[in-house]
Amino acid sequence: MSDQGLYPGLNLGEGHGEAHDEAETTVFGFWVFVMSDLVIFGILFASYASYLDPVGLAGGPGPQDLFDIRSVAIQTALLLLGGTAYAGVSLAVKYEHGRDRVLAFLALCALLGGAFLFFEVRDFATQAGKGGVPQASGWLSAYWALVGLHGIHVFAGIVWIGAMAAQVLKRGLDDAVKVRLSMLGVFWHFLDLIWVGIFSLVFLVPLA
Amino acid sequence: MSRPVGPVFGKLDWSVTPYTDLLQTVNSSTIVGAGAASVLVLGAIAAVAVLTWKGWWGPLYRDCLTSPDAKKIGIMYIVLGLVMMARGIIEGAVMRAHQATAMGTLDQPETGLVSPDHFAQLFSTHGTIMIFFVAMPLLIGLINFVLPQQLGARDMAFPVLNQVSLGLTAAGAGLVMISLLIGKFGTGGWTMYPPYTGKVFSPGEGVDYWLWAILISGVGSTLTGMNFAVTIFKKRAPGMHFMRMPLFCWTSLCVAIMLIYAMPALTVSSSMLALDRYAGFHFFTNDAGGNMMNYANVFWMFGHPEVYILILPAFGVFSEISSTFSGKKLYGYTSLVIASMSIAVISFTVWLHHFFTMGQSAGINIAFGIATMLIGIPTGVKIYDWMATMWRGRVRMTAPIVYMTGFFLLFVIGGMSGIILANPSIDYQVHNSTFLVAHFHNVIIPGVLYGMLAGIHYWFPKAFGYRLDETWGRRTALLFVAGFVFAFLPLYVMGLMGLPRRSPTFQDPAFLPWMYAAGLGALLMLAALASLVWTFLVSWRNREALSVPGGDPWNGATLEWSSPAPVPEWTYPCIPQVTDRDDWGERKRAGDPWRAPDRYVDIEMPADTPHGLLIAAAAFALGFAMVWYIWWLAIAAFLAIPALLIWRGMRVIEPRIVSAADVEDEDRRFREFVARTAPITRAEESTPRNRGVPDCTEFAG
Ligand code: HEM
Ligand SMILES: [Cu+2]
Question: What's the complex ipTM?
Answer without folding.
Answer: 0.91
